[in-house]
Design goal:
Length: 120
C-alpha cells in the first residue's frame, strides 16, 4: 500500500526519483498510465496485471468494447527503474498531467498505486 505525499523534481530528461519507501514495490519495472483528474498513475507489476486481466474479462463479457481496451492499453507504458530509483515519464503522459521538465512535482500514494501531480 502506498500512502503519503513527496515533493520531487522532474529533471530535464523527464526523469523523476521515486521515494525510497516506494521503490521496492516498483523494482525492476513499473507501468505508467493516464490517471484520473490529470495525473500520471504509477502501477506495480501486480496492479498492472490485475487491471489488464479485469479489462480483458470485461471485453470477454461484453461490458467493454475493444476500442476502449485499446484506448487504455495504448496509453500505458512499461518503464524500468534505474539504479538511482528514477523512472522516465513519457512526454505524452507529461503533457496530459501538465508536468513541465525541470519543475516540481508531487508523488502521492493512493493505496494501490502512486500518482504524479503538478503541484499547481
Amino acid at each position: 500500500m502506498f500512502v503519503g505525499a513527496h515533493e520531487r523534481q522532474l529533471d530535464p530528461k523527464g526523469r523523476i526519483a521515486l521515494p525510497a519507501a516506494f521503490r521496492p514495490k516498483f523494482e525492476p519495472k513499473c507501468y505508467l498510465a493516464l490517471g484520473r483528474d490529470k495525473c500520471v498513475d504509477v502501477l506495480t507489476n501486480e496492479t498492472f496485471l490485475a487491471v489488464a486481466n479485469d479489462v480483458m474479462e470485461k471485453v470477454r463479457r461484453g461490458e467493454m468494447d475493444r476500442k476502449q481496451q485499446r484506448a487504455l492499453s495504448s496509453n500505458m507504458i512499461e518503464v524500468v527503474v534505474d539504479a538511482q530509483g528514477r523512472i522516465n515519464v513519457d512526454e505524452k503522459l507529461r503533457r496530459y498531467a501538465g508536468l513541465e521538465l525541470n519543475s516540481r512535482v508531487i508523488i502521492s500514494g493512493s493505496f494501490d498505486r502512486v500518482e504524479i501531480w503538478d503541484p499547481e
